[in-house]
Amino acid sequence: MAPTEIREISRSKASGGYVVKFEHDSPLSRCSMKFSVFVPPGYEKKNSKKYPILYWLSGLTCNEDNFMQKAGGKDKLAELGIVLVCPDTSPRGLGIEGEDDSWDLGTGAGFYVDATVEKWNGYNMYSYITQELWEVVNSNFNVDPSRAGIFGHSMGGHGAIVSGLRNPDKYKSVSAFAPIANPIDCPWGKKSLGAYLGTDNQEAWKVYDSTEVMKAYNGPSRTILVDQGTADNFLKEQLQTEKVAKVGNARVKVELRMQDGYDHSYFFISTFINDHLGFHAEKLKA
Amino acid sequence: MAPTEIREISRSKASGGYVVKFEHDSPLSRCSMKFSVFVPPGYEKKNSKKYPILYWLSGLTCNEDNFMQKAGGKDKLAELGIVLVCPDTSPRGLGIEGEDDSWDLGTGAGFYVDATVEKWNGYNMYSYITQELWEVVNSNFNVDPSRAGIFGHSMGGHGAIVSGLRNPDKYKSVSAFAPIANPIDCPWGKKSLGAYLGTDNQEAWKVYDSTEVMKAYNGPSRTILVDQGTADNFLKEQLQTEKVAKVGNARVKVELRMQDGYDHSYFFISTFINDHLGFHAEKLKA
């Protein structure tokens, strides 16, 4: 049975609602995991109204704070009446050799995969997001699991597309900012997938690759909104965002918007966050 | 002659405009000083239109980044066509004994005063803001110095009220979030003013005290917008914000809004930033 007890760490009023940080024991992650939640004005844990919910997956080096502090969008979330959850991006403090040696592997860089290499025991961010956190949130918040969406940035954009399309019964709307579109074919992806999944069977990497997951997708029809800055230094070598727009699977359409002059920072995200919130709200009937 | 050469450190597109960070040699501060600027969409250094300008003064521990990353408001600045400048909060790296020992004195805590105690030579944030930075900005940006406003948060709210009212010819609009309203009578203020100005002549502290400056104010009529969260842990002992609303000088009216349940964080600022930008825009005819 999934653990459901959560402990409140901090709470700040924002845009009429609250940003609240929690931690909980995560058997899957072998540590305590933190997440932040925005609840809109008037939110009560127990009342008849159930709120639509959005999951935001952050990028490399981030934790549960980055979106809440830098992305903006809280006025819009308040207006739309949506609950938004920001998990951390990896387990922390597991004591694995090398976990803190580089910013693109280990701590802060879980890559939203379930590690199969024994060394990374506890790095199960794919199942943490799609199962454990899903249960923790549904059992602790007044949300409607039938109206859930997922989105994210960079590593988290990759995580959102993969998690969303592999679980269309859970996530009814998907969008991404500057996702790592084809990790099996870029340096960040090869490093992470090689470490967490091993290099012997690279076929096994494909279930964690947005482009490959989109090719294989045969669920209900989906349109995914993707924003990408043209001045993003990671675009060409790492993100290769255009690849998700070229898959050609009729069941999953990508609305790719190349945003002139924007880079990879949260300044880019904050500029277009309201568009994404509106996109999800329409799909989730928020 | 004031130094005017500035060097661009970084640039990110945001809300159709740009967040740009600069540094410049500051003889007054005895070091290189950084500041960030938001320029709205269409801003060009050389064209016929001159932009109104806002100065944001940050609080203890902050630097030139905090407002840009966390306060929001850039969509509104873009809409209003205002240039906004965020300076750092102190000189850095002067090698003064104890400058990095505490978060509320020295580095990140210049308190917007000109130090008279020899030890703090270089800590001249009052003159840095109102003279040196003023010149640097006016000579490097396409702004209209006759339409300048100033605002800030906490220590920066104090700095904005003091700088604004002591220089009404420069700053035509003033507002504050949770200002340190009466530093001569609170622990943060006594510590800073005592260190930078010495404790022998505490009368000299009054020119850096919002409440005292308001009492003595005899310039053109001003209305100052002040927002204060009721759940701000610093309100009672440090900020004492209600004091600026009780001065009773007919020339300077304070519109104090007590915001129910908000704390001292940037979540509070981001909630009400657009109100402040609208307030300044009206005064500056932006």
UniProtKB/TrEMBL annotation, chains A, B:
Active-site residues from the entry: S154, D232, H264
Catalytic activity as recorded in UniProt: S-formylglutathione + H2O = formate + glutathione + H(+)
Cellular component GO terms, alphabetical: cytosol
GO biological process, one term: formaldehyde catabolic process
Localization of this protein: Cytoplasm
Keywords: Cytoplasm, Hydrolase, Serine esterase
One Pfam family of this chain: Esterase
GO molecular function, one term: carboxylic ester hydrolase activity
Enzyme class: hydrolase
The enzyme's E.C. designation: 3.1.2.12
Signal peptide: none
Transmembrane intervals: none
Family: Belongs to the esterase D family.
Classification via NCBIfam families: fghA_ester_D
Role according to the record: Serine hydrolase involved in the detoxification of formaldehyde.
Name listed for the protein in its UniProt record: S-formylglutathione hydrolase
Species this protein is from: Powellomyces hirtus
